[in-house]
Design a protein that fits this description.
Elements lengths: L1 E6 L2 E3 L5 E9 L4 E9 L6 E6 L6 E3 L7 E7 L4 E7 L8 E9 L5 H9 L7 E2 L3 E5 L2
Parallel strand pairs: 2-11
Antiparallel strand pairs: 1-3, 3-8, 4-5, 4-9, 5-6, 7-8, 9-10, 9-11
Length: about 140
């Protein structure tokens, strides 16, 4: 079993920064690629950033590329994935979800391909954290 817990959401100002963290605990050897999705009111869930199990491969959607950075810190007892969000704008207002794939689901490219086909079935999901960008 793997549990994901997000933290760091809240109120940010346009042009400002926020940092989200996702702590994975449990059977960490099972965790492979991890990702951040977001869902704004009235919109579909969107994959915005993802990182491979090793941390060497990353993916960003066009909506956040150049502004957000995903990183990963793997230790014996916890995997933490961080999303540094810079140059925030009001369109970044959403509930942000951490998600992950197990080793059985394959590498990062497989996760991206599935999502691009409309398959959002990840092995692990956090409960989400709300980000509001407003002045």
């Amino acid at each position: 079993q793997v549990q994901l817990a997000e933290s760091g959401g809240g109120l940010g100002e346009p042009g400002g920064s926020l940092r989200l963290s996702c702590a994975a605990s449990g059977s960490l050897s099972e965790v492979n690629a991890m990702a951040w999705f977001r869902q704004a009111p009235g919109k579909e869930r969107e994959l915005i950033a993802a990182i491979s199990g090793s941390g060497r491969g990353t993916y960003y959607s066009n909506s956040v590329k150049g502004r957000f950075t995903i990183s990963r810190d793997n230790t014996e007892n916890e995997n933490t994935v961080t999303l540094q969000m810079n140059v925030l704008n009001r369109e970044d207002t959403a509930v942000y979800y951490c998600a992950g794939d197990s080793q059985a689901m394959g590498a990062l490219n497989g996760m991206i391909a599935r999502v691009q086909r409309g398959d959002y079935d990840m092995d692990y999901w956090g409960k989400g954290t709300l980000v509001i960008v407003s002045s």
